[in-house]
Design a protein that fits this description.
single chain; mainly beta; 52% strand; 31 strands; 8-stranded mixed beta sheet
Length: 467
């Protein structure tokens, strides 16, 4: 089954379910912020996020007015800048940088999250042509306070530490007796500390525009969608995708970076960089329909989750039609050789794939006729259930039935391949644990098998979702 917004299609009644994870951490810095004097000991606090989408819900956008950490003496510090509006369905199992601030050093035992206006985006199937609609969300409370089991210690000249803050839409979004979303939301958070060397401290994906480049220090400065600026440092171990390199960076270029914050400088030490657009625009999201369904695609529909700049004709939370001429550069974010062209190209596109596209700004003025020069396949989190008896430790594979919004796009059973660098999280230690696991989230790339045409997932993370 294929899914396309402007085709007649009967879809089942769906229930909202989502989980979001944030991480806050501190590292050394000597600068001041928000009136803190220069001789006051401070640390840098960064906020990253991850989440998982649910069936009919395509987005849950809420203004985060503040994230405040408080010590035992009642002293409070702000961990984010401004009041960004965050879509908790944009990232699924992947962590991205949301804010970076210097805050006073201290031992913080409590975290308070204050939320502002919120909306729910959902797939409306009541008419003959399914559409994306939004409704205002009514929060039962705007403020959630959590006492930390292990304090968050931010110290000058110390390694970064952090917090995982899980926001559960499954527990938060209210439904009526028939399973329909009411619009009422009771914010539910789970918070725990994270060590500097934990996998949770890694920034899997940060997409932003280049504002300056320093070839002498091999660094460049990015400004993200919420105004956060961060210095990115590259070295001989940094991997560049799409045959790009440091010399290709110019002001206004849009890149995707992954890495960790440096323990001493606070820079983001990049382990991977993808040049999405040298000038123009970038958009990311899930492929919902491919034309034609087999052979080389001439166009595809993209449900837009991310967009830079926001002044194009494309609207986040809606569908854009991307036209292909055959001259586009196809690549896979984590694959840096020519083999990626044999695994992902115009003939190997599938509904459900998470991609980023980039091109000239003029090509994004009409959402029904978007032109691009780059299409990049990226990791995405696919929630679903393990098919009983499908775990094969000899072949390092298992099968899953994808659910949520992605399950509409991928209705058939998918084979998951475990790679040498696959990590297990949330209670899973190895592949053997899948025998007793029902609900999982697999973060990886969705591929169309060149031989069978069936969808497969190469896993980067495998998370238990039974809790």
């Amino acid at each position: 089954m294929s899914f396309k917004m402007h085709k007649n299609l009967a879809l089942p009644s769906l229930l909202a379910l989502s989980v979001a994870t944030w991480l806050v951490a501190g590292c050394s810095s000597g600068s001041s912020l928000n009136g803190t004097s220069a001789n006051t000991s401070t640390g840098t606090a960064f906020v990253v996020g991850t989440d998982a989408p649910m069936d009919s819900v395509t987005s849950f956008s809420v203004q985060v007015q503040s994230i405040t950490a408080t010590d035992s003496n009642g002293n409070s510090v702000q961990l984010i800048s401004g009041s960004p509006t965050v879509d908790f369905a944009r990232f699924n199992g992947l962590q991205t940088l949301l804010s970076l601030n210097n805050v006073p050093a201290g031992t913080y035992t409590n975290v308070t999250i204050t939320l502002g206006p919120a909306t729910i985006g959902y797939l409306d199937t009541t008419s003959s042509v399914p559409t994306i609609q939004t409704m205002p969300a009514t929060l039962t409370t705007n403020t959630v306070s959590v006492t930390l089991n292990n304090p968050l210690v931010i110290a000058n000249a110390a390694a970064p530490v952090g917090l995982h803050v899980d926001f559960s839409l499954r527990k938060s979004i209210q439904v009526d007796s028939t399973g329909q979303i009411t619009g009422n939301v009771t914010p539910t958070f789970f918070v725990n500390t994270v060590g500097p060397d934990d996998s949770g401290a890694h920034i899997d994906e940060y997409t932003a525009a280049v504002v300056s480049v320093d070839a002498n220090t091999q660094t460049f400065v990015l400004e993200g969608p919420h105004g956060t600026q961060i210095t990115v440092a590259v070295n001989g171990q940094t991997e560049w995708d799409g045959n790009a390199g440091f010399s290709d960076l110019v002001n206004g270029a849009i890149v995707q970076v992954s890495g960790k914050l440096d323990k001493t400088t606070g820079d983001l030490d990049a382990d991977e960089v993808e040049l999405l657009s040298r000038s123009g625009f970038y958009a990311s999201g899930q492929v919902t329909y491919v034309t034609p369904a087999s052979g080389a695609a001439t166009s595809f529909d993209l449900y837009v989750r991310g967009l830079l700049p926001t002044t194009t004709g494309i609207t986040p939370g809606q569908i854009a039609q991307v036209d292909l001429t055959g001259n586009e550069n196809f690549s896979i974010y984590w694959m840096h050789d020519q083999m990626s062209q044999f695994l992902f190209n115009s003939s190997l596109m599938l509904p459900g794939q998470d991609v980023a596209v980039g091109g000239p700004a003029t090509g994004a003025s009409d959402p029904n006729n978007v032109t691009v020069n780059r299409v990049v396949l990226r990791n995405w989190g696919f929630n679903g259930t393990v098919v009983p008896g499908s775990v094969n430790t000899s072949n390092n594979t298992f099968q899953m039935q994808v659910n949520g919004f992605a399950g509409i796009l991928i209705p058939q059973t998918v084979t998951v391949y475990i790679a040498g660098e696959t990590e297990y999280r949330d209670g899973l230690a190895d592949m053997g644990g899948l025998d007793t696991t029902t609900n999982v989230r697999v973060v990886g790339v969705l591929l169309k098998s060149p031989t069978t045409g069936n969808p497969i997932i190469v896993a980067h993370y495998v998370d238990s979702q039974d809790n």
